[in-house]
Amino acid sequence: MLWAGNIGYGIRPSARRRGLASWAVGQLLDEARALGLDRVLAVCAVDNAASVKTLERCGGVFEGIRDTEFGPARRYWIKI
Q: Cα separation of 64 and 19, whole Å?
């Protein structure tokens, strides 16, 4: 599956630009750590600048862009 990752989040428009996405990713990483995972994959649309910034801020390392059934997606690995 190329269009989905191990973690996912969404922030409603009225709650954006408050750091909630970074907080949510941090919480998801805590849960992944508790499960014994050593890294997780996060995927976002190529044109989703906010998610790119969030994933990079949270330690995401860009793997590349893959074509998916929903269009091109950026893939990030986050080491826990």
A: 25
Domains and CATH numbers, the chain: 16-79 (3.40.630.30)
Taking the complete model, does pTM exceed 0.85, yes or no?
Answer: yes
What's the one-letter identity of residue 76? Y
Predicted pLDDT of residue 8: 86
Which residue(s) pair with 73 in the sheet? 45, 66
Reported as a single tens digit per residue, the pLDDT across 40-75 is 999 999 999 999 999 999 999 999 999 998 899 999
Q: What region does 59 belong to: left with phi over 0, alpha with psi -120 to 50, or beta? A: left
Contact 74, 3 (CB under 8 A): no
- Supply φ then ψ for residue 18, to 5 degrees: -125, 5
